[in-house]
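haha ok so turns out i had the wrong file open the whole time. this is the CORRECT one, sorry everyone. sequence first:
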Amino acid sequence: MTVNETEQTSAETKTHGVLLTDVAAGKVKSLLEQEGRDDLRLRIAVQPGGCSGLVYQLYFDERSLDGDLVRDFDGVGVVVDRMSSPYLEGASIDFADTIEKQGFTIDNPNAAGSCACGDSFH
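then structure:
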């Protein structure tokens, strides 16, 4: 493998297919400003658990782990680990702030179904 092929492969594997809406990116920026930290990124992961088999995890993280896939949304870094990436490909993360609901929402085309509470999927 040549140096150019190595650089190209590295560049191709560093991104993921998760979309962060402008509203969600604005909320993440606001939360980070409240924390007074500019070294954190939003990490999105899928872990075993819940009544449907898999659960989402969204949290701020300062770590860079081997195999992390990173994408920038208007200054907001979004990180997905390599194992979670196939489960999240094409997923869209938004933020709702209504009387009925407040918080981040995930629209995932890979989820075949979810439980009644909406916290887990399969």
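The domain at 15-110 is CATH 2.60.300.12 (Hypothetical Protein Aq_1857; Chain: A;).
again sry for the mixup
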